[in-house]
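Hi V.,

Quick status before I head out on leave. The structure for the redesign project is tokenized and pasted below; the design run finished overnight.
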């Protein structure tokens, strides 16, 4: 019988120390009769720490740069030492040292290159390190894996930091590289988040982009499923940070998951679902602490979507209200003027509404954006804004859910469709 092919994604928390990495290997053992394409993120908070080192590099603060790199290096070497007794890790240690050699000498890079390009080149070390260490451990214990460089497989344009995937080329190169390797090795280990372009430069898919990487591989290889291993039991109906009694969603449709992530649910990177939905490849969200638990299944079945109401909270919102100075009605001509000005100011609108004379819209708080919005609008419009607000979205709402989220709050704006109610709220 042909083995099934599973795509697994392990995020930073699942490989944050030696014990966590051993737990990943234990999970893989449970699936030993199947082929696995494994995508891994940088360990723990490494991407954030690399960003700090990168800032020092851009400010030409060599001292700060060295100190920050040293912290990252110690962290990785410590994990390596905890995983392998001296000689056993010698080959890996050499490889890790040589990657750190590139990290440490990054300040020789041409600082005149575009910042975003330098950023991608530097930030990618996190995934290169984690994938090397994890693959070495898998091979030491299970002897059946191979490390692959994702930058030769996922090919993008040159929009650094948020690169767009060239799908036809990516599908071809993933198939060419992975299919023969999967015949020879049970597990292939590669990097999430990073990619490459045609001139051989490293690019990235945007922060938290490793889920998307898993979706790309699954699509190209037409895998049987994708599993995102997380530190929560599955997709929950609200962020446990804001909510005490969260409920796990056992099964929802692609459509529902796309809606939830559009409104701001942060469990899965929003770009992940489309390549899976197109090929009807189910996505599982499972707990790495409890791998036998079923987690959440996301697939084509819509029959359970309405079962549990979901709550999505966005804090620190700013509500603008604008009125044409000449008191003209807000008809299409005015609206298109407003939209082109807002798009010039790069405003990302979370919700909007209009009346005869006023147009309101909500954005995440960002001092620079507020300034640019005032700049583009103030000549023709009376502009007012309110800060410190909260946007709450309730999917599959009823009277009770709405009373619950609005309790002791003042409603500044509200909208509802058949399935979704949204409220812009301030403390009373
Ligand atoms: N390591 C990257 C980040 O922290 C990508 C990811 O974790 O998905 O953004
Ligand atoms: Mg991460």
């Amino acid at each position: 019988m042909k083995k099934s092919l599973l795509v697994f994604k392990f995020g930073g928390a699942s490989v944050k120390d030696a014990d966590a990495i051993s737990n990943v290997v234990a999970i893989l053992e449970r699936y030993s009769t199947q082929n696995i394409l494994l995508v891994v993120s940088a360990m723990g908070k490494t991407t954030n720490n690399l960003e700090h080192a990168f800032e020092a590099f851009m400010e030409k603060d060599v001292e700060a740069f060295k100190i920050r790199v040293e912290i990252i290096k110690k962290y990785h070497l410590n994990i390596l030492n905890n995983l392998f007794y001296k000689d056993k890790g010698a080959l890996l240690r050499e490889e890790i040292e040589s990657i750190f050699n590139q990290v440490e000498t990054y300040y020789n890079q041409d600082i005149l290159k575009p910042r975003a390009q330098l950023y991608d080149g530097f930030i990618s070390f996190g995934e290169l390190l984690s994938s090397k260490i994890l693959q070495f451990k898998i091979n030491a214990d299970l002897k059946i894996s191979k490390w692959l460089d994702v930058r030769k497989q996922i090919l993008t344009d040159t929009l650094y930091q948020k690169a767009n995937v060239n799908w036809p080329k990516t599908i071809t190169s993933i198939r060419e590289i992975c299919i023969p390797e999967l015949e020879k090795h049970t597990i292939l280990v590669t990097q999430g988040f990073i990619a490459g372009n045609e001139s051989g430069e490293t690019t990235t898919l945007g922060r938290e982009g490793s889920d998307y990487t898993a979706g790309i591989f699954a699509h190209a290889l037409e895998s049987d499923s994708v599993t995102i291993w997380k530190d929560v039991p599955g997709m929950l109906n609200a962020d446990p940070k804001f909510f005490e009694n969260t409920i796990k969603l056992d099964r929802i449709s692609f459509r529902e998951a796309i809606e939830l992530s559009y409104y701001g649910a942060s469990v899965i990177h929003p770009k992940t679902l489309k390549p899976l939905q197109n090929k009807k490849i189910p996505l599982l969200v499972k707990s790495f602490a409890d791998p036998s638990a079923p987690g959440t299944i996301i697939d084509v079945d819509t029959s359970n979507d309405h079962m549990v109401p979901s709550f999505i909270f966005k804090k620190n919102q700013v509500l603008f209200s604008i009125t044409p100075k000449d008191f003209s009605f807000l008809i299409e001509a005015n609206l298109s003027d407003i939209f082109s000005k807002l798009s010039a100011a790069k405003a990302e609108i979370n919700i909007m509404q209009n009346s005869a004379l006023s147009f309101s819209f909500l954005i995440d708080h960002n001092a620079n954006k507020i300034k640019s919005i005032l700049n583009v609008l103030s000549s023709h419009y009376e502009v007012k804004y309110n800060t410190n607000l909260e946007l709450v979205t309730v999917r599959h709402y009823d009277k009770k859910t709405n009373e619950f989220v609005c309790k002791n709050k003042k409603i500044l704006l509200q909208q509802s469709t058949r399935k979704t109610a949204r409220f812009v709220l301030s403390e009373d």
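Above is the designed sequence. Residues 11-12, 41, 208 surround magnesium ion (ligand 2) (CB under 6 Å).

G. will cover questions while I'm gone.

Best,
W.
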